[in-house]
Structure formats: C-alpha cells, structure tokens
UniProtKB/TrEMBL annotation:
Family: Belongs to the TUBGCP family.
Domain Gamma tubulin complex component protein N-terminal per the UniProt entry, residue ranges: 2-185
Domain of life (superkingdom): Eukaryota
Lineage: Eukaryota, Viridiplantae, Streptophyta, Embryophyta, Tracheophyta
Primary location recorded for the protein, binned into one broad class: cytoplasm
Any Pfam family the entry gives: GCP_C_terminal
Ranges of residues in domain Gamma tubulin complex component C-terminal: 190-513
GO CC, alphabetical: microtubule; microtubule organizing center
Name of protein: Gamma-tubulin complex component
The entry's keywords: Cytoplasm, Cytoskeleton, Microtubule
Amino acid sequence: MYNQLASWMVYGILHDPYEEFFISRQEDRDTEHDSSPDVLEKLARMSTNDVSLSDWHLGFHISLDMLPEYIPMRVAESVLFAGKAVRVLRNPSPAFRFHDSPSHPQIPRGSQRIQGFMERLSFQKDPSMDTKLIGEELLPQSEADKIEAMLQDLKESSEFHKRSFENAVDSIRAIAASHLWQLVVVRADLNGHLKALKNYFLLAKGDFFQSFLEESRQLMCLPPRQSTAEAALMVPFQLAAIKTIGDEDKYFSRVSLRMPSFGVSVKSSQVDLSKAKVHTDGEPGAQPDMFSEMSIDGWDGIALEYSVDWPLQLFFTQEVLSKYRRIFQYLLRLKRTQMELEKSWASVMHQGHSHFAEHRNDRMSCRQHFTPMWRVREHMAFLIRNLQFYIQVDVIESQWNVLQAHIQDSHDFTELVGFHQEYLSALVSQSFLDIGSVSRILDSIMKLCLQFCWKIENQESNGNTVELEHITEEFNKKSNSLYTILRSSRLAGSQRAPFLRRFLLRLNFNSFFEATARSVLNVVRPRPIVPVLQ
C-alpha cells in the first residue's frame, strides 16, 4: 500500500495492475458499462488538455470496496486530491509556458493570428522538454522528496499508527494544495480572470454595455433574424469595444458573444470592422418577411462565452461558466430595460411639446393626456433603477469584496474553489434567480416595461391608449405582487434577509409601495374598532 501511495502522491502515477489500491480510474468502471465505438472514438479524439481536465474532474475515484476500514473517508479523499494535484503539477500543458513567462510582450489584437502561428512553430521544437522543466518548477524536487520521506517513515515503522498516518496525509495534501494554489492564483493570474468575468458577465464595465445597447438599439427593436442574428450583433459589439475598451485590456479577446438558440459564436477578436460597417449600411434589415417567427424578446437569448486556458479549467468549470452566463442574461435584460425607460422619457417629452404646440388653446386636456404616461414611466423606472442598484452594489460589489478578502487570506486551492462557489451562490440567491415565482415576476415586469416604451414611441399623439392602460394595470399588479412576496415571512427568515431589507427600504422609503400593494391586491386590513367609553 505504501508503494502505491508513493507512486500516486509523489509522481501522480496510478500503478495498480491487480486493482488492489483504493484509488482507481473512473474510465475503467465506465467502459464496462459503455464500450461503444462512439465512446472509444470520442476518447481517441480528446486532446492533451481534454485528457488532463477529464482526469481531474472524472478520471479517478475512491473504490469503497478496496478502502481499508482503518482509513476514514476524509483521509481517502485527501489522498485522492493530493495525487490528482501532483498529476496536474507534473504534467502542465505545453501552451502554459507562453502565458507563464513574465517577459512575454503584450501582442496587439490585430497580431493574435501571427502569435498563434509562432506558438505552433515553437511547439514543434521539443514540447516534452519544456513541459518537463515547467513541471519541475511547479512542484520542486525538494517538495517531492519531502513527501516521499513522510511516506518512507510511515513504511519503516514497525506498527501502523492511525494518527501519524492521518497527519502525514494531511501534510502532503497541504503541500499539494499550496502548489496548486500557486499555479492557479499566481502564475495563471486567477484574479485577473475573475475581474474580467466581473467586468463582462456581471456588467461592471457599464460604459461598454451602455454603448453596446445604444449601438444595437435599432437592431433590437425588430425580432432577431435566424440567419444573421449573431453577425448583426457583431458590429455594435465591436463598435462598443472600440469606444470604451483600450488595448491594455488583454482579457477582452477571450470574450465572445453568441445567441444560444442559433448556435453561432461571435468572437470579439475576429471582426473586420470596415467590412462590417459596409455590410450594415447596405443590409436590407427592415424587410419583415425575412424575419423568423420569434418575438422581439428573442434578443433576451444573448449570451457571453469566455475562453479559458490550462490550468484555469480546473477552477472555471462549465458549470461555473453557465452560472455566470445565467446571471449575465438577467443583468443585460435589466440594463436594456433601464435604458429603454430613459430613452422613452425623451420620446414622451418630445410628444408632449409637439402636442402643446398644436393645441395651445387646450393645454389642460394635453396635460391630462400625457400625465398618466409620465407617472407610469416614472414608477417603472423607479423599480428598475432600484433593482439594478441593489444587484450591482448591494449584491455584486459586496460579495466581490468578500471574495477578494478570501483570496488574500487563503493559500489552499480547494478552499478557494469553495469560496468562489459561495460567491456565485450568493449572487444567484440574492438576485432572486433561484426563486421561480420572483424571477418570473421580474421577467414579466421587464417585458411590460419594454412593451410600454415601444407603445409610447410608436403611438400617435392622439392614438388609442387602451393598450397602454392595460400594460399599466398589469405592471401595477406585478410590481405589487413582487413587493408582497419579497416582504413575506418565508424570505424574511432566509439568508437573503439583511440584503433584502435594503432593497425593500429603497422601494418603500415613503410607504407608497406598501399602501399600493394593499389596495391593488385587496389585502387592506380593517381598522380596529375602538370601543366607546360609557
């Protein structure tokens, strides 16, 4: 057993021809159940990076049948982690040496294709030699000798001491976790990538998305066209980047825009802007018969993707990135709604001034005609602004500061993964994305706001207001239902409570929401009857 432990925890090699060790390969068990040609072909096509990731996430597991009764499950999990970590440290990706070099110059976006070509030429020299050298840097020989010495001391002991064995395993695990932390956090620049995900997926770079939504506003007033939706978004995406993002932002080239329902990605670094502008100017984009049957809300499917290199895939799994995408889609809809409400204010004011000029003798009726629209728009903007401020400041910024404090204090990779999971879970829960009833109401409110804005901009000054009145009525019901749910006793006792109270305080600072909710939902409590004193 000690020989197998040494092979696994010192070199990251699982040498168990007779299947006696309690660590075993996952694929050995899987291939028994599924050895179809498709699966074997898929495994054959996997690249070195894919195999490395597969090994980390699914490659090895604890075989409970072979686990000795004197080794607790916690200790077995530490053995599993230490071996996988050593395996990663001793087998780095060949591409990692380029990102790891501190003297590697910044290459402009336009030269990225040349950079990739030069890197491929460099790989052809002798990648195995460089990989071996980097592996020795990531796990110094002195540390490997220390691990081997611990196991050798246990092996030479005449008796098995459970406490000594557990302490040795914990020490080895700490060494492996510390070096893996050094690799991911320091050498792979984890915090820079976390900051980039915050900038783009959590909309911290507000000027970029403000510019993007303004550039694409006319496009998004029409339903997305199935054949050119992604290509049409490419132009405003790149124009916004030119206006707001400098060349020093080395992470922007990793971001790509896509429409999942159509399945085509729009890479941020693969655009010819001069051709794109000509294409937009000459594109017959206003032909209604060319559009698909999707509604205008089909643009809510806009998503971002982020390209992650080795070894950050150990940290940014597909599950993690899917959570970021879900939050991004929610925040982008919110920002788009907020911007449309602001734009509609200018439209309403312009209509009001024009109407006043045409009906100077009947200004009272003009005022009565436009005042309800102004009031409803302001109520919508008030709710959306407060929700946006709550999520961006009270939720995202506060949780980001907590995560940064954890990154500064922790030097353990597994701890860091746990802290990041807590960070994402807090973003989801405190943004109400995990409460179906609340998220559905918020989606309905945003759609009503957008419909209201489009109706205002498209209606004639003396047009029919029945649809606007219907939208107003629905908005009042939804907004008051939202307030009633958020202040319910079920949420008041949850972990969201302290953050939720801030949001409710902003909404109901003058008791308007509470009074309106009671009247609209018919939950007005009867006043207590004061007995008359005889």
